[in-house]
Write a structure and sequence with these properties.
- This protein has 16 helices and eleven strands.
- By secondary structure, it is an alpha+beta fold.
- The strands form two sheets. It has a six-stranded mixed barrel. The chain has a four-stranded antiparallel β-sheet with strand order 2-10-1-11.
- A hairpin with a 2-residue loop joins strand 3 and strand 4.
- The radius of gyration is 35 Å and the shape is elongated.
Length: 444
């Protein structure tokens, strides 16, 4: 420490060079980590990574049984997705909830206008989705409320002032699926149904009045129902009570299983993304088709890993330049302290003692440079986040944190700075250890 203080200006500039190199490394890697964290949080909140979308094999093979291959026996009957299957799936290990994908096309009547659009039922758990950030209004008051949320693009079709829709009513015209009974007016259809082995179904036009409680800019249906594109959202239990006719109803009727309504698809939520594979395999063994975005997650991680690698390489270049400054500083110190080195050896210091002294000085420069560099890199990242937030606010968008310095990055940067400094001090330390004490004492 005394030797470092004696050449305080030169050593301070060398330490500053190390700090700038570490700061560039930390700032670049923190940017990569921050963007990766931001993407992971957004996608996780969207419900894309912890969901398995389940459909019946009938959706891919047509109604009825699977066609047997010439060299095999006929396979078992395709199971429809009904309430019994929903209960079975909810009992699987790692599953948190199972809900149906209730999606249908309807006519929306509002203020004398009639527009055709897609409607989707939302489970109560979707209130925590990131899609509802910055919404105009509030979420559904209860899971069974007669309320609706509109996507802003559809709201603009109804009025030039979408926020003004909150609190007003709209009417849905939809087709209800109902079982035939003896009170049915169509006697011919009733006779045909009663003469068959399977009960009949009827499609009845209905209307439902809903109160608009919210207008949102994003589309939460991608993570909720497996496919995007819905423009009007209802509470899931409200949508279930409507008994809307689904495309699978005709296939279910033809297969003779019309006693229990089937679903187009089921969404299975799991505790964490690591449970997706296990749950997906279990569902496939039950005879259903599954889909998840686990493969897309792996590809995303690969992209961010390569991104972090390149950022780290560019940051390491600055630290390499700083290491040249360390070599220069220590070599100059040897030339200025030849007499001191000679006295040390005359007093009994070994080559190892002299080498350790210069190693310690190089390590101290790396340690202080690492600490200051991490602090400077954190400040740079915070400035980037601050500037990005201001820009996003001017664009009427929520602010985000694009830079994140985890503890392992801070400790790793400090350790890397120390290692680089010690490597840079190898040559000066070896040169100092080889000095002849007699020549060193003569040095002026």
């Amino acid at each position: 420490m005394r030797n470092l203080r004696e050449a305080v200006l030169r050593n301070s500039l060398t330490t500053l060079g190390v700090a700038v190199g570490v700061a560039s490394l930390v700032a670049m890697l923190s940017l990569g980590v921050g963007l990766q964290t931001l993407a992971s949080q957004r996608l996780t909140r969207s419900g894309l990574f912890d969901a398995v979308f389940v459909t019946s094999q009938r959706n891919f093979r047509g109604p009825g049984r699977r066609p047997p291959t010439p060299d095999s026996a006929p396979k078992q009957e395709v199971r429809p997705l009904n309430e019994d299957v929903r209960q079975q799936l909810s009992k699987l290990s790692g599953v948190t909830e199972v809900y149906p994908q209730i999606r249908f096309i309807t006519d929306v009547h509002f203020a004398g206008k009639s527009e055709t659009t897609s409607v989707l039922g939302l489970p109560d758990s979707s209130r925590s989705s990131g899609s509802f950030e910055g919404m105009t209004g509030k979420y559904f008051s209860s899971p069974t409320a007669d309320e609706a949320i509109l996507q802003i693009e559809f709201a603009k079709v109804l009025t030039d002032q979408p926020p003004s829709l909150v609190g007003k009513d709209l009417t849905l015209r939809y087709a209800e699926r109902a079982a035939l009974s003896k009170d049915t007016d169509d006697e011919a259809l009733l006779d045909a149904a009663m003469g068959s082995s399977a009960p009949g179904i009827s499609i009845v036009p209905r209307e439902k009045t809903l109160r608009i409680v919210c207008v949102i800019e994003s589309d939460p249906s991608a993570g909720i129902g497996g496919f995007g594109g819905a423009r009007v959202y209802l509470p899931l239990k409200t949508a279930e009570r409507l008994h809307v006719a689904q495309p699978d109803d005709l296939e279910t009727f033809l297969s003779g299983n019309s006693a229990k309504p089937s679903y187009m698809g089921l969404t299975v939520r799991v505790h964490s993304p690591k449970d997706v594979l296990q749950v997906e395999e279990a569902i496939k063994k039950m005879g259903f088709a599954t889909f998840s975005l686990l493969d897309a997650t792996k590809g995303l991680r690969l992209v961010f890993t390569v991104f972090d690698l390149f950022l780290g390489l560019f940051g390491s270049l600055a630290l390499t330049v700083a290491s040249l400054g360390i070599i220069n500083t220590l070599v100059m110190a040897i030339l200025e302290r030849r007499r001191e080195i000679g006295i040390l050896k005359a007093l009994g210091a070994t080559d190892r003692d002299v080498r350790s002294l210069f190693f310690a000085e190089a390590g101290a420069i790396g340690l202080f440079g690492g600490f200051f560099g991490v602090a400077l890199g954190w400040l740079i990242g915070s400035a980037l986040t601050w500037g990005t937030t201001i820009y996003l606010h001017r664009q009427n968008l929520p602010g985000v944190k694009i830079s994140y310095v985890p503890w392992w990055l801070a400790l790793g940067a400090i350790g890397f700075a120390i290692v680089v400094s010690l490597v840079a001090g190898l040559y000066p330390a070896a040169r100092a250890a080889r000095l002849n004490p007699v020549e060193a004492l003569r040095y002026e």
